[in-house]
């Protein structure tokens, strides 16, 4: 394999980055091909991990009873969250579609095992949270790979980890990091749902970049890149 | 943009996934083109985030004084970590190259701001950690984009967040998530450094996948995919 990326290879990669969506609607009942799902899982498994600890596990779920219980947990947590907002924002919130647990053919719970290859893990000695960060990198690999394969993925974060641990029989020391829904979709939206609904705007790249120090924008060493960043080219 | 990915586009994407490395050696002093660095940052900024909160900031660093202070923090934490291991493992640990702070032309600190668009963030009500998880997804996008652009990236997790906060003047509520080093390299290794050094083996995909429940391998509904997963095809 050539080390450098051709323009076509770069284009394929960036297409995944910019067309990936958090999918809650448009799931079809079409099942996911087993080879495709294997490729998606293998991409996740090839994420970076602190000290090469590979501290993730992937629990594949299609059991209807399990899905129903997770959906029930979503319903409870969703209602509870709505109590934190008032007025028109509340009804807007309640109208948003925020999960596709039952419609998607496959759900996956991604977990973190702090004991794997431990207790001494290279690079995890000063900042123990880096173990969890590795699992998140695996989730992002999975998400991008799914998009590349034409499979929608939605992360359901409105649920109780206590319920997840019970239903999936996770041991005490195993931490659930994400619960995601995968399936083919009738379409991928071109913009995130919450941007389309005008819930929040996409920030400009310039809004999130500082130079040398927090909030520093005045940076003579960086004036060329600042122009590019301010131009805020829409690659998406 | 066509919704489906062509075989060439898929190949470009998977090349990024499988050829990405955590880079500590082989950095050259060649500076990173500003357009290239902008594309890498923009890929990071287009990561998914809970409730579209985009809670990340990227602090670009090339100031030598700052780098020296971070390197000093690495040295202290690295030595401290070595005290946790004994014998041949200790000397092996000390011989590993674990950072490229001074050799790489650009360092980036990626931070999490829990107050952005808050306090009510959709999807962050039950599991507040999802804000941090979003930042990790951005880091993985950055990492893959860097690889695609021929830029090596190494995550330095052996350092003190206290030192980082002080040197970069981060406000109390801002959490540093990662400190990474970027630069062109003489080569990308085909396997992770710690695998090459036989510190730890790569797990098989089958080792990290369960069906329906924790540790469950006996799964009649999943027998076809189990065969593919057990085959452990080396896509890398």
Query: What would you call the structural class of chain A?
Result: alpha+beta
The tally of structural domains of chain A comes to 2
- CATH fourth-tier homologous superfamily of the largest domain in chain A: NADH Oxidase
Rg calculated over all Cα atoms of chain A: 20 Å
Number of helices of chain A: 8
Largest interface: A-B, 117 and 117 residues
Query: How is the largest sheet of chain A built, in terms of strand order?
Result: 1-2-4-3
CATH fold group of the largest domain in chain A: NADH Oxidase
Q: Whole-number average pLDDT of chain A?
A: 96
Number of strands of chain A: 5
| Beta-strand percentage range of chain A | 5-15%
CATH class of the largest domain in chain A: Alpha Beta
Examine the secondary-structure arrangement and name the CATH architecture of the largest domain in chain A.
3-Layer(aba) Sandwich
Assembly status: homodimer
Report on the biggest sheet of chain A.
Answer: 4 strands, antiparallel
